[in-house]
Amino acid sequence: MDFIEELTWRGMVHTVMPGTDAELRKGMATAYLGIDPTADSLHIGHLVGVMMLKHLQRCGHRPIALVGGATGMIGDPSMKSQERKLLDEPTLRHNQEAIKKQLAKFLDFDSKEPNAAILVNNYDWMKDFSFLDFIRDVGKLITVNYMMAKDSVKKRLSGENQQGMSFTEFSYQLVQGYDFLNLYKNYGCRLQIGGSDQWGNITTGTELIRRTLGGEAFALTCPLITKADGTKFGKTESGNVWLDPERTSPYKFYQFWLNVADDDAEKYIKIFTTLSKDEIDTLVEEQKADPGRRPLQRRLAQEITTMVHSAEALQAAEEASQILFSNKAAETLHNIDEATLLDVFEGVPTFEVSLQDINDGIKLADLLVEKAQVFPSKAEMRKMVQQGGFSINKTKVTDPQAVASPDMLLNGKYIIAQRGKKQYYLLIAK
C-alpha cells in the first residue's frame, strides 16, 4: 500500500511537505508521532495520530511512538489558552508504561521485521542536557523571529486572556525540534506526523535538521477531527472518552461510537478502522438504503471496540446494549459487571434501601412503596402486577404478595425495578 494514498482517501491528510511522497517511495521509511503523557491512558482524541502510525506500519514503514516525558514537563502551547500543570518524573514514567500497553493494541512492537514499532521517551535524552548546553547548541540555531512567526505562539500572545506566554512554553518548539533532530541522527527518522496544530513545531524540527546537519526531513499532518455539529470530537458530558476500561467502560465506549451522527459515522469509519475502501463504500450504500439500521455506526463501534478492548468486551457491550429490549435480558443482568450495569441505567431514579430488609424477606409492596417510592400506593402496585406490567431485573412479577430475597441482588447490591415499558428504577441495598 502507498501510505499517502491510503491516508488521502481516508480523509487523514491536511498538509504534506513537498518531497514527502518521493521519500516514502524510496523504500522503508521511519516516521514518528509525539504523544503527550499527561494521563496514564490515551483518549480517543489521540487515536487519529495512532491510526496514522498503524497505517504507516501496514504500508511497510517503521513507526516510532515518542512519549513526551520532557515536553510533557513543559506543556505544548498549541491550541491551548493557558499553561498546563507540570508532572513529576515518577508520574510520567507510570503514564508511559500504561500508554505503551494501549499502543501495543495498534502497533507491532515485537515483530522480527525491520519495521517493528519503537517506543521512545524524550526525557531519556533531555534529562542530562544542561540549560547552558541547550541554549548554546540548539537555541542559537533558531531565531526568535522564526519562533514568533508560528501560529501557536501568535495566538497565545494575542489571546483574550492576556496571560501571555511563559518562556517555558515558548521554548517548547525548540525541545520538540530537538526530538526530531535526535531521532534523525539515531534512528534515521526523516518524517514527523501529527495533527495540523503541530505544523509549526514539526517544521521547526525540519529546520533544525537542515541547519545542524544539512539534512532533509519531512512533515505530514492530519486535520483536527470535529463533529458534524461543530462541537469538539471525543468529548461527552462526563468528559473524555478514554481507552482505559477503568476510566470509560467498554459499554460506554461502544455506545459513544454507536450513537455518532450519520455524517460523522461515514467520516469516522475511514479514520478509525482498517476496513478497505470497498467495504466502507458498501456500508455507505447500505446506510443510504436503510438509515434506521445504522450499519455504519454498528460496524464502526464493533471494529474499534474490538481493537481497543477485545472481542469479548465487544460481545458484553452488545449484550448490555440489548438489556432494555432483549428476551435474554434477565440472564444478561445477572452476568454483567457493576460498572456496565451502572452505565446502562445511568440517570434513572435511584433509591437506597436496607440490605437487612431484603435479607429478612420484606414484601415487595412494602419495599417499593414505603422504602423506595417506585409506586405511589400498594393498590397502584397491585394493579400493575395484575396487568403484567411490573418486573424485577427484567423478570415479570406475577404475585402481588411476593417478597424480596438476596438472590434478586445484582452484583450483590442492586435491584432493577421496571414499571410499564420504559420506567426504570435502581435500588441500591446497603
Description:
The longest helix is centred in the middle third of the chain and has 16 residues, at 172-187. Helix content is 46%, strand content 13%. The chain has 22 helices and 13 strands. The termini are far apart. Helix 13 runs antiparallel to helix 16 (295-308) and helix 14 (262-271) runs parallel beside helix 16 (295-308). A hairpin with a 2-residue loop joins strand 10 and strand 11. The mean pLDDT is 91. The protein has helices at 3-9, 20-25, 47-58, 69-74, 89-103, 123-126, 131-137, 144-148, 151-157, 167-170, 172-187, 199-213, 250-258, 262-271, 277-289, 295-308, 311-321, 329-335, 338-344, 355-359, 364-371, 378-386; strands at residues 15-16, 30-35, 62-67, 118-121, 191-195, 218-222, 235-236, 239-240, 350-353, 390-392, 395-396, 414-419, 423-429. The protein is elongated, with a radius of gyration of 27 Å. The protein has 430 residues and is α/β, with parallel strands linked by helices. The strands form three sheets. A six-stranded mixed sheet has the order 1-6-5-2-3-4, with helices on both faces. The chain has a five-stranded mixed sheet with strand order 9-13-12-10-11.
Secondary-structure topology with pairs:
Elements: H1 3-9, E1 15-16, H2 20-25, E2 30-35, H3 47-58, E3 62-67, H4 69-74, H5 89-103, E4 118-121, H6 123-126, H7 131-137, H8 144-148, H9 151-157, H10 167-170, H11 172-187, E5 191-195, H12 199-213, E6 218-222, E7 235-236, E8 239-240, H13 250-258, H14 262-271, H15 277-289, H16 295-308, H17 311-321, H18 329-335, H19 338-344, E9 350-353, H20 355-359, H21 364-371, H22 378-386, E10 390-392, E11 395-396, E12 414-419, E13 423-429
Parallel strand pairs: 2-3, 2-5, 3-4, 5-6, 9-13
Antiparallel strand pairs: 1-6, 7-8, 10-11, 10-12, 12-13
